[in-house]
Backbone:
């Protein structure tokens, strides 16, 4: 009987998983290149549109002019980007730390979850720009308001995702552990936390882009450094090429960070994406 | 036979104002006994399991396990459900080891005795036919294989009480019969106490010493039936006349429950 069971089981070795790899190489290449093709297409459309309609460059610069500004002012742009980059990362880091802890606390108790969720939603509905004047009064013009705005805007998705991951534990799984004498903290550490990791990593992607938004918004009104400030002052001088160059740089940074965290997510939580790579 | 291991005295449980889910349960299960509960859906079989393991307290009456009144979740039982409920981020081996990370006294020895524990897990996985799959993840296993692993997880810490809530319900007939034999062999070897909830009368009659039949909600035990078939039982007996007659009698009793 047992032998039979083994034979039947062996027939289902992981070989069948490899069928997916038979996808033609061509298709894969095209799929990989698709985003770049889209970028090139967008730039071409941009350039052509501006030229065909003869839009003045102080209203909407062409792609070429933007590129020129990017090269000409590469020094200042690099400096301001660096400022934006590190303030964002600090704000994001704070957001992750606070988000994780708060999410863990809220998600670990049904009572807290129910009590705090509406509060969090209400807090999230406040436009974070509204905090900037307050932060300026408290901390003055500079990096601190930028960091804090980035933090305020990005911790919410992390809290919600971690808390939800913990709070939606299957009751049966909990029962299995409780009859072993598991305490609540055992259940949270052995099952709740690993289970909420995919939610957590997914939220990091969202949070990092939001953090950039927070920094730049704050910089435009309350700083004399950073990409936000650069764009603001260039705009007031009608140097639209430089403004657009700033836009490009900020979105490039956000994209790179997003991709970084997307990769991290894949690495850390491969088991949660099993449906796709089968 | 040894003294009563699990006793229920006039136990009733009402989850809410809708009335008793389970009512006037009086029974005793002795150590090493294999009992099966059958009854219509919603009659309170899973509720019985929760009472037995202390996951839920009775509204009236008393549950005693091993002479002690049950006040909180038992710490000596293993459980398996219709869903295997394996953790997808752990390998099969690590899933089976999970109870040893939690149950006393093993949890404090886990680091030191890990090698030894891994040995236990591998041995157990081998007996259920999962040799060679230790490092696979649960989602790389078939439903039946997951269920085998789930049973190993319920048994790794050598619990005195094994609770099985329709563990074979989601499996095809062949796999189910295979797993009956796996469970039978494990039980013959270790003689822990088993409470098995099932919809399948053949399963109950083949595996159990005693079959309890429950009525519709509010669930009461309406029949206690000792299965006298000699042990060890071979799967072939389930296709012979005495066994078939037995199942038909049980079936008739369930039929009465349903029609009243
Ligand atoms: N947590 C709960 N709160 C309220 N009522 C419940 C709860 N759990 C079960 N019930 C009710 O108690 C009754 C018995 O439920 P139980 O899950 O024990 O049935 P069961 O015999 O296991 O059914 P099945 O065979 O379908 O699994 C049902 O009527 C159900 O609606
Ligand atoms: Mg049930």
Residues:
């Amino acid at each position: 009987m047992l032998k039979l069971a083994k034979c039947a089981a062996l027939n289902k070795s992981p070989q069948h998983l490899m069928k997916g790899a038979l996808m033609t190489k061509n298709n894969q290449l095209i799929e990989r290149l698709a985003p770049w093709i889209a970028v090139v297409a967008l730039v071409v459309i941009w350039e052509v549109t501006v030229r065909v309609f003869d839009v003045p460059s102080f209203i909407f610069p062409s792609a070429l002019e933007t590129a020129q500004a990017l090269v000409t002012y590469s020094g200042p742009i690099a400096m301001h980007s660096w400022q934006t980059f590190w303030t964002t990362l600090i704000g994001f880091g704070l957001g992750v730390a606070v988000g994780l802890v708060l999410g863990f606390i809220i998600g670990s108790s049904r009572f807290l979850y129910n009590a705090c969720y509406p509060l969090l939603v209400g807090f999230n509905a406040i436009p974070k720009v509204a905090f900037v004047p307050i932060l300026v009064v408290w901390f003055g013009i500079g990096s601190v308001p930028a960091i804090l705005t980035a933090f305020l805007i990005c911790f919410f998705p992390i809290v919600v995702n971690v808390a939800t991951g913990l709070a939606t534990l299957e009751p049966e799984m909990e029962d299995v552990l409780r009859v072993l004498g598991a305490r609540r903290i055992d259940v949270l550490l052995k099952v709740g936390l690993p289970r909420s990791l995919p939610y957590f990593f997914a939220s990091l992607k969202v949070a990092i882009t939001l953090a950039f938004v927070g920094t730049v918004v704050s910089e435009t009104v309350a700083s004399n450094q950073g990409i936000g400030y650069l764009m603001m002052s260039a705009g007031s001088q009608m140097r639209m090429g430089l403004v657009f160059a700033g836009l490009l740089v900020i979105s490039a940074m956000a994209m790179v960070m997003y991709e970084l965290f997307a990769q991290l997510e894949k690495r850390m939580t491969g088991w949660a994406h099993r449906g796709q790579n089968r | 036979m040894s003294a009563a291991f699990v006793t229920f005295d006039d136990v009733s449980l009402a989850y809410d104002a809708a009335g008793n889910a389970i009512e006037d349960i009086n029974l005793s299960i002795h150590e090493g006994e294999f009992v099966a509960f059958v009854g219509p859906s919603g009659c309170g079989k899973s509720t019985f399991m929760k009472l037995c393991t202390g996951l839920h307290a009775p509204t009236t009456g008393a549950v005693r396990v091993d002479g002690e009144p049950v006040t909180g979740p038992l710490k000596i039982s293993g459980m398996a459900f219709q869903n295997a409920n394996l953790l997808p981020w752990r390998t099969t081996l690590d899933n089976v080891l999970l109870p040893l990370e939690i149950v006393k006294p093993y949890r404090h020895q886990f680091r030191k005795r890990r090698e030894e524990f891994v040995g236990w897990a591998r041995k157990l996985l081998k007996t259920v036919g999962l040799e060679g799959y230790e490092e696979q993840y649960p989602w790389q296993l078939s439903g039946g294989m997951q269920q085998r692993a789930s049973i190993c997880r319920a048994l790794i810490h050598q619990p005195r009480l094994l609770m099985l809530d329709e563990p074979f319900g989601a499996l095809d007939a062949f796999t189910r019969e295979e797993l009956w034999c796996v469970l039978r062999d494990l039980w013959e070897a270790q003689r822990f106490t088993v409470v098995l909830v099932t919809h399948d009368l053949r399963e109950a009659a083949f595996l159990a010493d005693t079959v309890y039949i429950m009525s519709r909600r509010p669930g009461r035990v309406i029949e206690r039936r000792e299965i006298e078939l000699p042990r060890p039982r071979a799967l072939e007996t389930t296709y012979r006349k005495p066994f078939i007659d037995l199942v038909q009698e049980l079936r008739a009793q369930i039929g009465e429950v349903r029609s009243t």
Chain B touches chain A through 45 residues (CB under 8 Å).
